[in-house]
Every structure is written in structure tokens, then in C-alpha cells.
Specification:
The chain has 20 helices and no strands. The longest helix is centred in the N-terminal third of the chain and has 34 residues. The relative contact order is 0.12. With about 475 residues, the protein is mostly helical.
């Protein structure tokens, strides 16, 4: 494996390890605060973030990916990009504050006003952080990112915990988000080790905007399609059901995003450096896909298999009824990851415009399904997270092959192998719980289910050569990473 591939893979490994630590902090936050706060508290926050969260996409404007993907980036261009992202962040903060009364009228919830005004400040902090974080990713400096994120999350959690214990209610969650954004800016900026220069109007950032604007459009469409369900449930089913729906979603999204983010960022950074060599690009993409898909898909399906036992333990008995929702979101998240390699190729080849067109198709499919499912209840709305990615998965690889002139069939077949493996493990685990009496013991049920879930992939690994080959590629890559890291 080349030094570039090893460096990128090692960065992904370190980033994932750091995200696991941050994940531990966030899970502790989720577990503890869920026992102190009510579904109504979480529903209020979800009402606001479902709408104003699009400002996170706007304040990035696709410029972080543009600076990471660029072959060359001067210090003046980097500074100009920082000023652009910071100005957009300020614009988003002001726009969100103006929108607050509209949200109050839409949801008929007075508390939404002050929550929206308070959370609007996060966009300024996040805008100012964008290019500092992008420069660290571009240089594959993953450790500072991990340390910064972990420190910010830990401090924000303890402050939120204190507020929740003293009866602050949903304000504990508001303060956690504001403080997390502020501290991330301070820590990431310090780690980046550079200060932005004065804006230089003689140096244009138009090429970065040209690359980033389609990504911005893709991001807005993806966000709208992914959050329309929350907005509809908040409008038609109220804060309590929305709070339950939101906790189920976050129980899956939070850990998966923190695993997915460093792997995806490092894959893009590495693939972008070989964008002109299709042979190496496909080789690197194939290995990255194996390392990415197997762990995240198996983990997601395991969450679905054990949701009935883990949810009451993690969140408390009053949240037990959300277990079916957790299983649905876990399966849907696993399926949605299958087409990730296509997105990497779009971005690495600079085809952000084509990605936007595909995202438009994806958004239309999701939005149509969400609106259609509203009369059938919030469980039907949740099922869209399984139905939509199943429809879009093969289509995404077909469109990618047509537009990039890269043979994506091997990548599609790899994703098919992964989901078959994880699907068999999930099916066997659920079947065992259906056919055998575990005497009503959640611990015994969890133990047996876990053993069966682990046994199925191991069995397929032993009897099917293709799975053994995938395993050896992953093992060889991991050895290369660890071997180089010791040098």
C-alpha cells in the first residue's frame, strides 16, 4: 500500500479512535440527560433544530470540502475562505434570530422563541471554525481535531449536567450546544496554528465557490429531505412524540456520524490526491470502502438486533417504547451507507455539480415518501429511512459510473456483500428471539442475541472465499497502517 494511502488510512484510524472517545462522552451525555429531562424538553429542541439546522449547511457553503479537495491552496486563499465562512456564519445567526417568531407561530409553542434566539449564536462560532478544521483535515492532522472535539464535548456535557440537576430543563440542552460550538472554535483555531490575514480582494475565491455551491445545494436538499419528518411530526403529533422520535434517531445518528465523519473526510482527502489517476483512484476507493462499510454496517445492524434490550438500559425504562424506532433508524442508516463510495468519487473527481443533480433526485424521493406517510403515523414516517435508501442505492452507483466513466460495479458488489452479511446476522438474531423463550431476562436475551450475531459473520467468513478475501484486504491494510505508525 502506498505511503499516501497508509497516511490517509492511518488518519482515518486515529480520527475514528478519537471519535470513539468523543462518542463515549456523548453517549454518557445522552444517557444521563435523558434520565433528567423529559421527552417534551427534547421535543422543543428538535422543533427548533429541525428548521434552523439548515443554517449549518449555509454557513459552510461547500467551502470546507472545496479547500480540502484543492490541489493547491495558498495562505491568502485560505484566509479569504475563512472570512467568507465567518461572514456567512454571522448572516445565518442574524437570519435565524429573525426567523424565531415565525417558528413560534408554526408550532404554536412560545418557548421556541428564546430557544431559537439562543441557538442562533452557534452559527457564528461554527462559521469561524470551518476553515481551521478544513486545514487540519487537508493536512491529515487528525489528532488535534480529536483532542479538540473531545475536550469541547466533555466540558459542555458537565455544564449541561449541572444545569439539568438544578432544574434548568431544556435550557441545559441549549447551553450544551452553545458552549460546545464556542469551545470547538477556540480549540480548533489554536490547533490549526495560523491566523487569518486581512481579506485580499485581489485574490479570488470564485473557483472554490464554483466547486462548493453545488455541494451547498446538495447539502440543503439532503438536510431538507432528512428533517422534513421531524418538522411534520412536530407540527401534527406534538412535542412528546417528537421527543421520543428525536431520541431514537439521535441514539443511532450520533454514534454513526462520529464514526462516519473521520472515515469519510480522510477518504476524500486521500482520493482527491490521486484524482487524475483512475486506476489508483478505484484501488484506493475499493480499500476505503471495505474498511468503512464492514464495521459501520455490522455495528448498525447490531444496534437494530439488540434495540429492545439496550434502549431501556441506556435511556431508562420510560424510553422503552422507542425501541422499534431505534431498530428502524439503525437499519436505514446501515443501508444509506452503502452508496458512500459513489459520493467520494464525485467529490474526488470534482463532479460536485453531478452530485447536486443526484442529491436532487434523492431529496425528491425522500420528501415524496415523507408526505405520503404522514396520515399513517410516525412509525410509517420513520420507515422512509429504510425504503428511500433501498431505492436509491443501486441508482447512485449507476449514475456515478455514467458521469465519472469509472466502473463502479465492483464497488456496488462490495456493498451488496456487506449488507447480505449484516442482514443474515440481523435475521438470525431476530429469529432466535422469536423462536426461543429466554425467560423474560433482558440480559440473557442480549447475551444470546449478541453471540448469534457474532457467529453468523464468522461462519460466512469460513465458508465463503470472497468474504475471506475482503477480510484479508482489511487486515493487510490495518497492518500497513500500524506498521507505518511505529516507524
Amino acid at each position: 500500500m502506498s505511503s499516501l494511502g497508509v497516511k490517509g488510512a492511518r488518519g482515518a484510524l486515529i480520527g475514528t479512535f478519537g471519535q470513539f472517545i468523543k462518542l463515549g462522552v456523548n453517549i454518557a451525555s445522552l444517557v444521563v440527560l435523558a434520565r433528567l429531562l423529559s421527552p417534551h424538553d427534547y421535543g422543543l429542541i428538535a422543533m427548533v433544530t429541525a428548521v434552523i439546522g439548515v443554517a449549518e449547511i449555509i454557513r459552510d457553503m461547500g467551502l470546507s470540502a472545496a479547500s480540502i479537495q484543492a490541489k493547491h491552496l495558498t495562505s491568502i486563499e485560505r484566509s479569504n475562505l475563512w472570512w467568507a465562512n465567518t461572514a456567512i456564519g454571522l448572516f445565518c445567526a442574524l437570519g435565524t434570530a429573525i426567523l424565531a417568531p415565525v417558528l413560534v407561530a408554526f408550532y404554536n409553542e412560545p418557548a421556541v422563541l428564546y430557544i431559537t434566539l439562543a441557538l442562533s449564536t452557534t452559527f457564528l462560532f461554527n462559521g469561524a471554525t470551518t476553515q481551521f478544521r478544513a486545514s487540519l483535515v487537508r493536512e491529515l492532522r487528525v489528532k488535534p481535531i480529536a483532542y479538540s472535539d473531545i475536550s469541547a464535548s466533555l466540558i459542555a456535557f458537565f455544564v449541561a449536567l449541572y444545569c439539568a440537576l438544578t432544574g434548568a430543563g431544556y435550557w441545559a440542552l441549549v447551553l450544551q450546544q452553545i458552549l460546545g460550538a464556542c469551545l470547538s472554535f477556540v480549540f480548533i483555531a489554536f490547533s490549526a496554528g495560523w491566523c487569518p490575514q486581512a481579506y485580499n480582494s485581489s485574490v479570488s475565491i470564485k473557483p472554490y465557490l464554483k466547486y462548493g455551491l453545488p455541494l451547498f445545494g446538495s447539502g440543503v436538499l439532503t438536510y431538507a429531505a432528512s428533517n422534513l419528518d421531524v418538522t411534520l411530526i412536530g407540527r401534527f403529533y406534538g412535542t412528546t412524540l417528537l421527543g421520543q422520535y428525536n431520541r431514537a434517531m439521535q441514539l443511532i445518528r450520533m454514534p454513526m456520524n462520529q464514526i462516519r465523519s473521520p472515515l469519510g473526510s480522510m477518504a476524500l482527502s486521500t482520493l482527491s490526491k490521486v484524482q487524475d489517476d483512475n486506476q489508483r483512484l478505484v484501488e484506493f476507493a475499493g480499500k476505503a470502502q471495505l474498511i468503512f462499510l464492514y464495521p459501520i454496517t455490522l455495528l448498525g445492524m447490531y444496534a437494530a438486533a439488540t434495540a429492545a434490550e439496550t434502549v431501556p438500559f441506556v435511556l431508562g425504562s420510560r424510553w422503552a417504547e422507542i425501541a422499534p424506532l431505534v431498530a428502524i433508524f439503525a437499519i436505514g442508516d446501515s443501508i444509506s451507507n452503502l452508496s458512500s463510495a459513489g459520493g467520494w468519487l464525485y467529490l474526488a473527481k470534482g463532479r460536485s455539480g453531478t452530485l447536486f443533480k443526484y442529491t436532487l433526485l434523492s431529496a425528491l424521493v425522500r420528501i415524496t415518501l415523507f408526505v405520503f406517510m404522514v396520515p399513517f403515523g410516525f412509525m410509517a414516517i420513520a420507515s422512509v429511512y429504510i425504503i428511500a435508501p433501498m431505492i436509491l442505492w443501486p441508482i447512485s452507483f449507476y449514475i456515478c459510473a455514467r458521469t465519472t466513466r469509472i466502473n463502479t460495479l465492483p464497488l456496488f458488489l462490495t456493498s451488496l456483500r456487506v449488507i447480505i452479511l449484516a442482514g443474515f446476522a440481523l435475521g438470525a438474531s431476530w429469529s432466535a428471539k422469536s423462536f426461543f423463550d429466554f425467560r423474560g431476562s433482558p440480559l440473557l436475551t442480549l447475551t444470546i442475541t449478541s453471540l448469534i450475531y457474532i457467529a453468523i459473520p464468522l461462519l460466512l467468513l469460513m465458508v465463503i472465499p470472497r468474504y475471506r478475501k475482503d477480510f484479508m484486504v482489511c487486515l493487510k491494510t490495518l497492518k500497513s497502517i500500524l506498521g507505518r505508525s511505529k516507524q
